[in-house]
Amino acid sequence: MIRAEIRLTSGGCNIRVCGHSGYSEAGSDIVCASVSSMLMLTVNALNGFPGCKADARVNERDTEVFVTVTGLPECALGLIKAFGSELTALAGQYPANVAVIADM
C-alpha cells in the first residue's frame, strides 16, 4: 500500500510518500504511476513559484520520498491542496492500494 502524508508547517509543507501500491507488477502499475506523476508535478510546479523551494529526497531502500517545502507563498497553497485532493480521490478509487493523511 502507498501511504501519503501531507502536513502544512509554518511557511511550508512536509510531504512523505512511501510503499508500493501492489495493484499490478512493477512497470505496469497504474496506481503507482499516478501517485509518482502527481508528486513530481507538484514538486516541479512548486519550484516555479518565486521564493518557494521544494526539496525532494528519495530513499530507495525503504521506498520513501520526502518533500520539504519552504517559502510557500499563499498563492501556491492551492497546489498543495489540489495534490491532496487528487490523492484522496485516487485513494477512494483504490482503497486497498492508497491511504492519505492530510493535515491542511
Notable features of this structure?
104 residues, alpha+beta, 5 strands, 33% helix
Assembly state here?
single chain
Mean pLDDT: 95
Series of secondary-structure elements, N-terminal to C-terminal: EEHEEHE
The number of helical elements comes to 2
Number of strand elements: 5
**Which structural class matches the secondary elements?**
alpha+beta
Helix amount: 25-40%
N-end to C-end Cα span:
22 Å
What's the quick description here?
With 104 residues, this protein is α+β, with helices and mostly antiparallel strands.
Question: Describe it for me?
Answer:
- With 104 residues, the chain is an alpha+beta fold.
- The protein has two helices and five strands.
- It has a five-stranded mixed beta sheet, covered by helices on one side.
- Strand 3 (53-59) and strand 4 form a beta hairpin.
- The longest helix has 17 residues, at 30-46.
- It is globular.
- The two termini are 22 Å apart.
Helix/strand layout:
Layout: E1 2-9, E2 12-18, H1 30-46, E3 53-59, E4 64-70, H2 77-93, E5 98-103
Parallel strand pairs: 1-5
Antiparallel strand pairs: 1-2, 2-4, 3-4
Helix pairs in contact: 1-2
